[in-house]
Amino acid sequence: METTRQAKIARLLQKELSELFRRQTAAMGGVLVSVSAVRVSPDLSIARGYLSIFPSEKAGEILKNINNSAKSIRYELAKTLRYQLRKTPELSFFIDDSLDYIEHIDNILKQDAALHRNDEEETEEK
Predict the structure, then answer these.
(1) How many helices (H) and strands (E) does the chain have?
(2) In whole angstroms, what is the distance from residue 123 CA to residue 94 CA?
(3) Tens of pLDDT along 100-116?
(4) 36: helix, strand or coil
(5) Residues 73, 51 contacting (CB under 8 angstroms)
(6) Phi, psi of 80 (to 5 degrees)
(7) CA–CA dist 5, 100 (Å, integer)
(8) Parallel, antiparallel, or unpaired: how do β-strands 32-40 and 46-54 relate?
(9) Is 80 exceeded by the pLDDT of residue 122?
């Protein structure tokens, strides 16, 4: 279970990482990186950031670049948060595929509804 301190630090990291990625992706046209969640370990030494990347075709490449530059991102974050956090956690980033999962479930439900309507139409014709 996440403590209050973990939750506060996670929200702070999410806010600052979002701003950092917004500034960095402003130069890249047509790319949007948003931080959907941050999870912090109980000892506050490791933070896992979950990113939503648009367009999703470039997600793997962009995530690889972000993970390769995690040290410099941590440095920029530490400069920003130097008065709020004593030690900035190690960062690792992952794709947040929850929106893709929701879309997949929605498509399955639409297909099921269409099949159900077709079955009803066939039974009415008989």
Answers:
(1) 4, 3
(2) 48
(3) 778 888 888 888 887 77
(4) strand
(5) no
(6) -70, -40
(7) 31
(8) antiparallel
(9) no
Rounded to 5 degrees, what are φ and ψ at 55?
Answer: -75, 145
- CA-CA distances (angstroms) from residue 116 to 29, 85, 109, 119, 121? 43, 56, 10, 5, 9
CA separation for the pair 61, 57 (Å, rounded): 9
49, 67 in Cβ contact below 8 A?
no
Which pLDDT belongs to residue 106? 86
CA distance 77 to 17: 7
Q: Is 40 a residue whose pLDDT tops 80?
A: yes
What's the mean per-residue pLDDT of the chain? 88
Write out the two tokens for 19. Answer: 């701003």
Residue with tokens 């403590």: 3
